[in-house]
Each structure stands twice: as C-alpha cells, then as structure tokens.
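Worked example 4.2. Below are the chains of a multi-component assembly; read each line carefully before continuing.
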Amino acid sequence: MKSDSEPWAPYVPTPEEPWNLEKVAHLHRRAGFAANWKELHRDLKAGPAESIDRLLHPPPAPQKFRRVADVLKNIIESSGDDFMTTEDLSPLQAWWLFRLTFGSDPLGEKLTLFWHNHFATAISGVFNLKLMLDQNELFRNHARGQFGDLLIAIEANPAMLKWLNGGANQKEHPNENFARELLELFTLGEGHYSETDIREAARGLTGWKPGRDTELHETNEFLYDETLVDTSPKTFLGQTGAWRRNDIFRIILQQPEAAKYLCRRLYRWFVSESTIPDDTLIEPLAIQMRASNYSIEHVVGIILRSQHFFSPAARWQRVKSPVEFCVGTIRQLEPKRISNLLPLVALNCDQQGQILFNPPSVKGWEGGTAWLNSNSTLTRLNWIAELLNGNPLSGLPAYDPTRWLKQHSIEPSQAVNSFSKLLLQNNLSPESEALANRLAGKDPSQLRSALLVLLQTPEFQLA
Amino acid sequence: MNYSRREFLGLSSTLLATSAAVPAFLKQTAFAAAEKAATSDRVLVVLQLTGGNDGLNTVVPFTDKTYRRLRPKLQLADEKLHRLNDHIGLHPSLKGFKELMEAGEAAIIQSVGYPNPNRSHFESMAIWQTAPSDQKLSSQKSVDAREGWLARTINHRATIAQQTASSQAFNIGVDEMPQALFGSRILVPSIKSLAQFKHSTGLFDQKTQQAQIAAWKSGTGSTSNPLLQAALQSSLAVHTTAEQIRKINLDQSTSGKYPENPLAERLRMVAQLIRAGFSTPIYYTEHTGFDTHSQQLNSHHNALSDLGQSLKAFISDVSKHVPNRPVLVLVFSEFGRRVEENASAGTDHGTAGPVFLVGSNLTSGVHGPDPDLENLVDGDPVFGVDFRSVYATILEDWLNVPSQTVFGQKFDKLDILKTT
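Applying the procedure described above to all two chains together yields the following structure tokens:
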C-alpha cells in the first residue's frame, strides 16, 4: 500500500479494500445524489473504473426527460422581467429538483450545486427568476470546464452584477462589493490579499452599467461600456499595469494560493468535512489544477478515482445537506411520482434551511455540522414521516414498501436487510437494525415503521 | 414557511398536529430541572444586527461638519432626530428606542470596535463572536475554527450534566448556529418556531423511542467519527427540546402587543420561553438587512424602525410578565460603515460603531467617546471602546462569570450595569 505517500493514486480493489456495495454507494452519494437499487448493483458489477467514467462522461439525457425539463423551464422564462422574491421560487426550485432527482448527469448537477454554493447568489438581492435560472445554466455549462472561463462568465453574469453591485462600480466611486468577495470567497481566501488589492481590483472591474428602458428605469441587462473603464495604472497583487477585468482574473489565477483555495473547497465538497486537509493532500491537487489550466473535470476525476476518496478518511465524513437528504431518499426509495412531489421536496429543503436560489449570504451554506442544528434535524424528522406515512392534505400518498420489494424481486423476508443495504449498506448499529427488524412485518405500515427507524439513525444523516 | 406557498401546497397545521406522543421518560430531565431552578436568574439576550449597521446614521453626530460634508445624500436632517444631547441624536425611526432611553431602560456605548479592524463581514463577525485574545487577534489567521465567546461562557458556568439537563442557550429563529455558540460541550438547540416543535410528527411512541435512543447510543457512543457524534447529539437535543416545548401553552403566552416583523416574532418567542419557565440564561437571535451598499435611506429606516419597536414590545412584555427574571439585551453589529457615502447612495464596510444595551438594571444614557471624524484612518473612525470590555462587563456584572477565564486576558469594565 502506498496510501500515505500517494493519496491521490488511483484506487485499485484489494482483498482489504474490495469494491463493494459501501464503496459504490459512497461514490454515488458524493458524485451525485445517491444511487437506487438498480444503479448500485449495476456499478457493483461494472467495477470502479467504468462506474467513475460513467459519472464523468454521462450518456445524453433521454428525450422524455429533456421535454419535461424544457416545459418546466418555459414556465419560468415566461415570467419575464417581473419582480420576484423567495415566495415565488417554487417553480424554479421544482425545475432544478427535477434535474437533480431524475437527470442523467448527477455529477454535473452536483457540481452545479457546488458552484451555486461557491458563487452564492440569492433571489433576495436579484429579484428575478429568469436571471437566477440563467445563472444556474451558466454554472451547469461551466460545471466541469476551466475555472478561468467560469470566472470571466460569472463576473459578467447579470444576476451576479445585480447581487454584488457590479453595475454600481464606477471609476469615480468604486463599489468594492464584488472585488472583495472575489478575493475573499471566490478565489484566494482571507489572508492572501490586502485591502489595497481589493480597491485596485474594484477599479480594474469597472465598465459595467445597468441597461435602461424607454422610461430610464434600470432593466435586467448590463452593458459593458469602454468609456466607463478605469484605464489608469493599478498595482494588484504586486503587479503594476493598466489592468482591466481579464487581467485581474489572470493575475489571480497566477497565485499558487488560488489553486490551493479551490482544491480545498473541492476537498470539503467531495471528500470530507470532518477534517481540514493539510498541505500534503492539497498541494498535489493544486499542482494538477495549475498544470491543467484549472480544469475542474481533471481534478475532480483525480479525486473520484483515488485511494484516498475510497478510504475510511473519506467515507461517512460528510453531513447530508437538506437537498442531498431529500433528493437522495427519493432516488433510493423510488416512491410514486405524483405531481407535487418536487414542490414538496423544495418546501422541505427550505424548512431545513437550504432554500435553493436563496443561500443565506454570499458565503453560501455553512454545511457540515451546521446541518445538524435542531431545526434542520426536527424538520428532517417530520419530512421522513410525511414521505413514509403520506399526507392527505398535501396529496402525498403513503409510501408502499411492498411495491419497491416487488419491483426489485426481493422476498418480503429480506425486506429490512435489503432496505438497510440500499440506505446504509448495513453501516448501522446492530441494535438499530434489530429494532427495525422487530418493528417490521408483512403489513406495509409495519415496514414503514422499520424504514422510519433506518432513516432516523444518526448514521443515515451522514453522506 | 410563507403563507402563499402553504396555500399552494394545501398544507394545514391541523394535520401536522396529529403528532405522536412524546416520551414520558424525558419528563424527569430538562423541563423538570428547569422548573426547579432559581427563576430569579438573569437572562442575556444577544441580538446581532447582521450586515454592518451604519452607526453614524443610527446615533447621528448632527453638528459634525465632516458628517455633513461626506454624506451629501445620506445625512439626516437634525430637526427630525430624537436628540440625546446638544450634538448627537437618534435616527428618526428609533422612537421606540428613544422611549426606552427616557424610561432609563437603554444605554448606548459609542465607538465600540477592536484594533486592526477587519472589513470582511465574515471575519469581523467571527471576531465579534469569538472574542479572541489580543495575541490571537493579531496573528491574522482566520478565526474560523475558534470557539464562541458564549460557548466558553456556558462551559464555564455549567457542568456537562447541567448542560445536558437543561439548555444553557437557545438560538432563536435562525437556521445557522452563530459561531458565538459553537464549542459548548452540549449542542445548543436552534428553535425556528415553537409550533414546529409542538407538532412534530416524526416521533415514535415512548417505548419505541427509548429503544431507538439506546440503539443510537450503543452504535455511536464509541465512534471516532466526529460527525456521527454530532448527529447523535443533535437527535438527542431535538427529542429533549420537543418534550420541553410541548408543555408550553402557546395561546396564553401570546399576549402583549408586538409589531409585525421577523425580529418581533423572534423576540416574542424568547419571551414565551422565559415565561414558560425555562431556566436558560442565554438567547441568541439576529436582525438582518444592514448591509446597505446602495440606496440605503429607506432600508436602513425600516430596519431601525423594526429594531426600536420590537425591543420596546419585548421589554414591556418581560418586565410585565416575568418581573423576577431580569433581562438584558445586547445589540451589536460586526462593524459600522464608511463615513463617506458611495456613489450608489449607500455606504461600504467600515469599523467601530455603537453598541446598545437594553434592560431595567442599567445606567441609561450615552457611554464611550463619540466617533472622532477629524482623525479617520483609511476613511473610518478609530475605535474608542474595545468590544471585549463590553462583553467583560456583561459577564462579570450580569452573568457572574470571571471574564479573564473566558477571554484569556483582562479587559477594563464599563460602569453601566447596576450590580445590586
């Protein structure tokens, strides 16, 4: 074993660390939103290389999926320039949740969520669904691409220009809001730039102005006007020149810290929230990041294929976010797809504290143990109960475990064991499994009680 | 959850009310302990103004020429201010707060901040919430991993057993746990709404729940995975708190007139919990909307108006209904804002600002030096009172905790809290 010296060397199954259900499920929880029974067994058979390749290079989405997604998207686009708040998010959230839950590119969606959290933008400062939708598509299109391209695109993105006052950043009166977050949260991290760098970056990023309609009201468009650019010399991160927006991004990405910062963020997202990785783990990734001109696909591929990713240092070392929890349980349990299932999921994610398209601040969601606060835990508890027992007023029918058993040709006597494999790969205390077995019986309601036990275990809250 | 979406989904609270019984074995724990505890204990409510409150347009230096010169659009007309003396006055929308001051129930501490100010929301908020020692503050390292000042206070005041028996703090109305409460030995519960706890549907009957908790503990008790420990803790906290809150009669506790805004709802919830007999000494909540980079006059007016009215309602509620539980409210923000307004009729991140204390046992009036606008450093006034001095005053004169053990060094106290 060379696990300590070369943590990012590819994982190869060994007798001590075989390719098993736990590792397949781990891969899908991290690179996507959990696997269903069929996917688990397909990839168990296929082995790690093929399974990871499928995630990195997914098959095209089926036509039927694309049609529904487009219909949902058209509803949002038809809302036009209307002023919108968090109360109006439901259709937009349902559209994304449809992609997250039923799409054929789970890794692409996982990365889209990563970028939504990284460049966290909220409807509460943008006030328009279409702008939020366009930004989300921007994240999706750039999800696996070069980080530099994404930076250039996001700085010119109308939702971001609105959110961090890019249109108000004028030569005479620089507005530092975007420049500050660019350095602190998007690229370098605290301690790797000065207040002067923020001011100089803000000057370099001038040039944007909001569009005006015939009555001179601001529209949702932004125009880049050469005459508004501050062309005087600036000293930014030690380099002096008449820097403009693309120079600012170029200089940032030349900083070794930029690659390290991004790798640390990817590590926390894909590998572990329980420890802060030291430089021996991050430096090799950062080298790859720079060598590949900041290719996200290249670095994420290294992470997913690695020994370290499949080791105990990574397994069960993240807390499920509300979206991962809710989408994951639906993907795993495969309940009947009723029409308001996804709006209900959206509502429950909101209540657990993860309002898609409305993160609490530009820092995104705290993540990790913050998802274990009592409010999230209690709401999660109630959501599980509603999903299993149904709710006539919301129109959600009770979950039928026997339907799932039949669908996968599983004997009723194997019910608890199979659900435990599906949900936890038997990674729970024997006492919890014994309790689930004691409550289980032939009746669907008894099986639902057993499922409630499994879904409420502390183990199931982890990813 | 907002009303229109609830309607849209056809949900109803009556259905949510068909909840499972809460286990009786928990009855001997938290709530019972709370009832027996000395109910005369003091309460601290920490209210965070998130985003960086514009202190200069809150406590306005209306005779200051620099203020007038650097704020052509944002300066407030002095005839509309609530004058506190011949040179400073409160924002016109702070009527409620002015009334509290006249009743001797509010104090202002001017120019509160710290050395080498950090203008990042997150870093400055982390500094306020963790209150590091001078040595750590100057190390320039990210403060992300530090324990909160209230968590350290809790750990000093209460043993693990006491922390398990009854909550030493509640985080009210907000999802995210503030860093100020991170690091206590037992997880501090967050309560977004009392109804949500009262009507939990996901709990088993008593016997099953007992078996369930025993199973969790046997499975996770010895784990080395810190996240699994945290998940266990959280589940236990939820089950215990649900049992406590189930006993509160919501209808009886909603008397008292509060304005309609999220802050008022949160403060009302705090009052309900105090009135219900919880021995919890610390409550944490926040009021948002202070990051006023553009067109700030209206939004700042509204945020301050909500603040003044909500505090007034809260103080009259608790002093009327629980006179034996003296309450002190600490109101702070992570920084003030730049003296010079920006081109968008807003203000950018600044440094020191005013802190407010509200309650019945304090020396009312204005404390601390007014901001010196003639001697700005990087466009911002220099702090005059260290925020850790404010905390030290509260710890020693209100919560009876030696502040040096919490902060690792001694800070001068202010003469504000009556120690009778």
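Take a moment to check your reading of the output against the notes. The two ends of chain A are 26 Å apart (CA to CA). Chain A has a mean pLDDT of 94.
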